[in-house]
């Protein structure tokens, strides 16, 4: 059951119905007009799209195409160059101009500010590029295992708090190739209903049975566990080989943290393994940046397998799994992404090594601690100011991801285009990444945003929110917001 | 699953009745008959004639199933399905009542409701009479 105000649900359903009706009307006339045109030479070829398969893409998505896939012309730092585009035929084709506009970047997963050139990381990355070249051109088990890879595996294991770690070249591939290597037919995977597509893909590819529990609902997780353990495997009712419960640290579409201590205690009670996907939370939350275990006070030894990616907080690419030595040893021999896929590019490895050293303070400065404090302060400030302005913001405190609810399909392009016009680059998400009625704009805060950047962002979001009408909650009048306080001082 | 779907459906029917009344200026009974017939045409086309999904991602898995058959993953007699069977019947009763059971409205309305209700029965799941609409 999705939660939203009833009148908003009615208007949103009506809008989708209207868009649907207009799309069908246009298709109907298109078919009449096209039946008069001469048929093409492709006589005996099968059509690429059968029937109305592409209805959603053609009639709903193409209308708002200019809000997605915007090309950029600089590194995704706090400020970003967005290439301006125009369309002459209602977004069917979009053309790039050669002009760029400098926008405040509220869409990149640049949590600690490592996305752009960094004074410690970049010289070392360039040096490793000269020494090890851009690619190892080989798999890890063959010729692609460099000193940097071994150093990073040990460093990641030490950072996260586990005995050993394995590196893989791509974050999505980490989930989708490791889960089949851990569990197979005869096993059971219980995953949160809002897990990322890579986990869903890995679970489906593994051959194990998959059950879903309601998002962050520990009582439902316990119910599912009890029912499945009592029933056993389907048809034969034999006991399951193993049960793995998969949760994420921060859910990127909600900005919520998972209730990790409760999940761990339930899993221990029923002897199930836990798999924690920290793609968005590693490096971004916690006192020392060690992710959701650090923030919620969970001992890393209690989580069986910890997965993470280097794309969000460390400004690189790739993913890792950290677990006990035996599990990592097994994975290194069975995981296809380790044996058959090219190893991580050495400059990318060096970037992660340098980033982790900065976070841990091992580069000799306290920039890491300052960045962590900055992102926490920025996130809490931004979220509380947005809430004071009357936006409906999801997510827990301390989480740098904050979705702002839009609901109505017309508000998606309106909000996005108005923000771009006022030089703020914001990301909007709609169906199918979110449920049909719950489209949202997702803001990601970075440690490299200064207080002035955030205040400018708040002003622009407020104006765009007024134009689109998304301030669903009443504005708090008793305290003035920081924007007005700053204007009073000036 | 989504709140407000049933209410939106009923509100659309009610407002289209008001629209027909204001555009044609006819008696309320004729307006209900017109709404009933349009409702028949539109819901028959979308629920029982069109097949497949508007998304290409599922790779044509549902290309042989009409939207009625895909509803609730093929489970019969769920709450949604029961509601959607009751709506044409209630429309039929309202149309008959407001037209005082006169011909030809009686015949047209009865035809509409019988086709719709028969098409929604659980026994008609995946049945294609005379092979009509059987190709993907």
Structure in words:
The complex is a heterodimer of chains A (490) and B (136). Chain A is an alpha/beta fold and 490 residues long. In chain A, 42% of the residues lie in helices and 15% in strands. In chain A, α9 (292-296) links the parallel β9 (273-277) and β10 (305-309). Chain A is globular and about 65 Å long. Chain B has 136 residues and is mainly α. Chain B has one domain (3-131). Helices cover 61% and strands 0% of the residues of chain B. Chain B has five helices and no strands. Chain B has helices at 5-24, 28-49, 67-70, 79-99, 105-120. Chain B starts with a helix and ends in a 16-residue tail after the last helix. Chains A and B meet through α1 and α2 of A and α1 of B.
Largest sheet of chain A: 7 strands, mixed
Write the CATH architecture name of the largest domain in chain A.
Answer: 3-Layer(aba) Sandwich
Oligomer: heterodimer
Strand portion of chain A: 15-25%
Question: Strands of the biggest beta sheet of chain A: in what spatial order?
Answer: 3-11-10-9-6-4-5
Number of helices of chain B: 5
* N-to-C SSE string of chain B, H for helix and E for strand: HHHHH
Gyration radius of chain A (Cα, Å) is 24 Å
Query: Kindly, what is the distance between the CA atoms of the first and last residues of chain A, rounded to a whole number of angstroms?
Result: 48 Å
């Amino acid at each position: 059951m999705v939660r939203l105000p009833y009148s908003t649900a009615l208007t949103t359903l009506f809008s989708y119905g209207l868009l649907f009706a207009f799309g069908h009307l246009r298709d109907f006339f298109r078919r009449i007009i096209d039946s008069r045109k001469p048929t093409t030479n492709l006589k005996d070829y099968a059509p690429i799209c059968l029937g109305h398969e592409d209805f959603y893409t053609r009639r709903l998505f193409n209308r708002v195409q200019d809000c997605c896939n915007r090309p950029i012309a600089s590194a995704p730092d706090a400020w970003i160059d967005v290439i301006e585009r125009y369309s002459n035929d209602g977004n069917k084709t979009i053309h790039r101009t050669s002009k760029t506009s400098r926008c405040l970047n509220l869409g990149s997963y640049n949590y600690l500010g490592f996305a752009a050139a960094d004074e410690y990381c970049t010289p070392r990355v360039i040096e490793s590029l000269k020494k090890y070249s851009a690619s190892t051109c080989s798999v890890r088990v063959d010729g692609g295992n460099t000193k940097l890879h071994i150093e990073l595996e040990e460093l990641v294991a030490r950072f996260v708090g586990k005995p050993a770690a394995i590196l893989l070249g791509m974050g999505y591939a980490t989930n989708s190739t490791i889960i089949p290597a851990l569990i197979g037919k005869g096993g059971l995977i219980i995953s949160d209903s809002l897990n990322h597509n890579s986990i869903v893909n890995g679970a489906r590819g593994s051959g194990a049975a998959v059950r879903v529990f309601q998002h962050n609902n520990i009582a439902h997780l316990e119910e599912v566990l009890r029912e499945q353990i009592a029933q056993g495997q389907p048809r034969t009712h034999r006991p399951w080989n193993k049960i793995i419960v998969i949760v994420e640290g921060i859910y990127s579409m909600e900005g919520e943290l998972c209730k990790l201590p409760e999940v761990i205690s339930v899993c221990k009670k029923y002897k199930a393994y836990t798999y924690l996907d920290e793609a968005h939370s590693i490096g971004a939350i916690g006192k020392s940046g060690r992710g959701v275990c650090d923030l919620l006070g969970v001992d890393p030894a209690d989580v069986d397998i910890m997965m993470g990616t280097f794309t969000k907080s460390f400004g690189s690419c790739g993913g890792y799994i950290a677990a006990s030595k035996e599990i990592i040893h097994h994975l290194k021999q069975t995981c296809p992404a380790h044996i058959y896929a090219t190893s991580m590019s050495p400059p990318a490895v060096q970037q992660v090594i340098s980033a982790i050293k900065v976070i841990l303070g091992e580069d000799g400065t306290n920039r890491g601690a300052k960045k962590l404090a900055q992102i926490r302060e920025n996130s809490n400030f931004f979220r509380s100011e947005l809430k004071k302005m009357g936006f409906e913001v999801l997510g827990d405190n301390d989480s740098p991801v904050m979705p702002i609810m839009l609901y109505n399909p017309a508000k998606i392009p309106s909000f996005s285009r108005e923000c771009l016009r006022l030089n703020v680059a914001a990301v909007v998400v709609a169906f199918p990444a979110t449920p049909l009625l719950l489209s949202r704009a997702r803001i990601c805060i970075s440690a490299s945003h200064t207080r002035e950047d955030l205040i400018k962002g708040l002003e622009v979001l407020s104006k765009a929110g007024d134009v689109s009408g998304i301030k669903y909650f009443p504005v708090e009048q008793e305290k003035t917001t920081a924007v007005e306080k700053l204007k009073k001082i000036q | 699953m989504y709140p407000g779907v049933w209410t939106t459906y009923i509100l659309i029917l009610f407002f289209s009745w008001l629209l027909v009344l204001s555009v044609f200026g006819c008696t309320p009974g004729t307006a209900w008959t017109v709404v009933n017939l349009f409702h028949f045409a539109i819901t028959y086309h979308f629920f029982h004639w069109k097949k497949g999904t508007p998304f290409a991602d599922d790779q044509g898995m549902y290309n042989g199933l009409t939207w009625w058959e895909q509803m609730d993953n093929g489970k019969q007699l769920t709450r949604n399905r029961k509601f959607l069977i009751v709506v044409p019947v209630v429309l039929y009763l309202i149309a008959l009542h407001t037209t005082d059971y006169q011909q030809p409205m009686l015949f047209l309305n009865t035809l509409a409701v019988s086709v719709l209700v028969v098409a929604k029965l659980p026994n008609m799941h995946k049945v294609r009479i005379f092979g009509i609409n059987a190709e993907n």
